[in-house]
Amino acid sequence: MVHYLGLDLGGTNIKAGVVDELARIVSKGSVPAEAAEGPERVVYNMVRVGREAVEKAALTMAEITAIGIGSPGPLSVERGVIHNSPNLPGFVNFPLRDRVAASLDAKAVLHNDANAAAFGEYWSGAGREMQHMVMFTLGTGIGGGVVSDGVLLRGCGDNAGELGHIIVHPEGRQCGCGQNGCLEAYASATHTVRRAEEAIAEGTSSTLSSLDSISAKRVAEHAQKGDALAIAVLDGAAEALALACVSLRHVVEPQLVVLGGGMAAAGELILAPTRKHYQRHMWKLQDSHPLRIKLASLGSDAGFIGAAGLAQQIFPE
Ligand SMILES: [Zn+2]
Description:
The protein has 317 residues and is α/β, with parallel strands linked by helices. The chain is 37% helix and 20% strand.
């Protein structure tokens, strides 16, 4: 059996896992990233949690074929370098791939974290058995990834799959990226909360107004209990997602769209209206391959699994 080590670097934690060639998790672990301490500390922690995962799998580094690393970008896959990242202080043109590879004495690949998570769902999660899949990671922001014919699309500058910045409402809400009307300004956890707060400030009555602070989870809970504002906010997020799905359908014709990240914890409350709006907006010409929309199935393991899978693609042994 061939084994890969997947490392998923987040702003808060580093997740590591040993994954075999059939995408089965052999061992896994997690440590704080301590990103505020700078890149040297982060590399130290990545190496430590990586070694621990390999030991837990009763293997040695010599038995690991390659390492896959998922990291916030922007980054260069080709050079294995983080250009700079708002969530990783001090990472300026930092050669993360080669630093980790040298410390663990193994070959390594580096990919954008959301791309890696999408590849993980394709390889062993909701997209298993599919060859054409798009994933949205609906978190604080929105990331994503596109797998076409079994290949993760990277684009000319390794920035393909920035699905949160597809414009769904021209003249719409301002996004943190500077554009107006991005998907992220409607369907991220951050903007879901903000839209609820804005509506309450404008006088819309809602059971959410009795809370000290609103979170995306609370919006989902109150929607479940029938609060009209919470339902409307989630419906707006779902419609924005559906519009992005329609555009993606025309570009890459996926078999499946997967919804992951914190907002996907709302389950049917986000899934059902997204499907409904997709049917409403999608063209009515004959469609022999209807698009399926499902929830992600790997949770926060998707990143290291996908990173390992991407390492396998480059270093199949
Ligand atoms: Zn944007």
